[in-house]
Amino acid sequence: SETAAEVPQPSRDLLRLINEEPQPTVLSLLGEQLESARLLGRRVAELHRALGRPTDDPAFVAEPFTTLYQRSLYQSLRNVATRTFTLLRDRQAELSGEPGERVAQLLGREKEILALGAGIVGRKLTGKRIRCHGDLHLGQVLFTGNDFVIIDLEGEPAATPGERRLKRSPLRDVAGMLRSFDYAAHTALKRARQKSLGQAKDRPRLVAWARFWRQWVSSAFLRAYLGAMSGSDLIPVGEADLSRTLRFWLMEKALYEVRYELDYRPDWLVIPVLGALELLDD
Length: 282
What we know:
This protein is mainly α. The protein has ten helices and four strands, in the order ααβαααβββααααα. The protein starts with 13 loop residues before the first helix and ends with a helix.
């Protein structure tokens, strides 16, 4: 990476990227981490298949998507977006530098977010709703040295018990893990800046390399997950349904993160804001 003239840029469309085999350069740079991401993808799929297996317990029986449920999801996203944008406008004057600039960009694209969310309605989606992990990210995973253990299945801490028991698409957990990879990449950048690694002119290339890592690791995770879910009726069938469902949950997660960071960690706000903007730009 020190001698590379340009940083290779993989597609940001993960569903397109998972159909691309990593080139030798990618494998030489990320081989071990790609394999870890693949293993994690398989373990998450195994968790979902276990949670979605046939049962007589009504609290855990898998349920198909319905057009009414899809409409409720869209309305929920509209409510989330309204709360998020109201909070951003109320606090915008407090923001400066890159966070302020990125928030201003996001505020101008509220209609696009609603249009993305509208992709969840219109026709009945394939796939099913199950009891998921509910708060899946890298902090909920323990590495044993050669495998992963998924912990803390009590759901989102801020949610009510009733909300935690709701059945959702397994792709909501997948979206949480993909967003977590994005946070991991940005954390590395923040640490590099804190340690004064590189000069200001190097920052665009460091950002590009972080994006390169995130995209290939995310791709490896998602490819392994989808492979391990093959033959299951729990996730949408076909790229169109898969794409609109995954993008919906990624945006829902990013908007949640925007509100969380604004309330508790303003220095981290730019991460989910950039994540939402990239989703709109894909």
